[in-house]
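Hi, here's the filled form for the chain we discussed.

Project: internal
Contact: R.S.
Residues: 260
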Amino acid sequence: HPTASLIQRLVNRLRRHSLIDDANCTWDYSVSEFERELGPETQRITTKCDYVERRQAVAISLIWRTLSNLKVVSFSGSIPLRLDPLVFQILQDSVTRLATHNLRTLTHIIWKCCDIDVIPVIPICTALEILDINFMTTYDEQSISRLSGARIPALHTARVRLNPCDIHSSNLFTLLLTWFLPSLRALSVISDAAAKDLNPFLSQRGKEIEFLRLTETSTFWYQDVNQNFPHLHALTQFEAHVETAGPFLAISKARLTHLA
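And the returned structure, exactly as it came back:
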């Protein structure tokens, strides 16, 4: 029957995208549901928690443990590290396990939790195409050396939101500069001020960038836009000082198809 077939397709689609929202979630039932049937079928999972306590952390860990065919993972939440370090450890281990179990299928990571650094698991996600993260971690030389050299050949889009307190010390782009990212074409950097290592990253990787979004002005060197970004089709920049838009528009309006 056509109606029955449509309903079944909708059910299958819902199963492929599972939403776990702490505001309307019965954790015990959700764990049981995933353990029974949803885990292997789920291709996209969205987990939202305003405040992750130990009960939620354990449930999330059990649910993520069932996932083996995941394409998209989205997580947002705040973790009380000072109040309960075990919560942090449970979720950090769960993220690593999730990436390991889905390294050949995971193509899209949306990570809105600043309390857990997802970057260390990215190198094993070799099929990753889109990375969308909130970032609040400081990398020293030892950390950069340990995480350097990753090969993510399919990654074409990266969106990074930098914490204002870590803009001058995070060294995220210093690390990314050591990674093999041949397909990267779209980059969005959301920050209140310029990350100290973003300009060196753009100077070396800008020649392949086609779409660039910045939320501050001091990163971009207007006089060299055509040389450093020969394939740039679109630039979105939220101007802090209106006068900086003039020279850029005069130099580059023939090349760009969009300027906001």
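Let me know if anything looks off before we file it.
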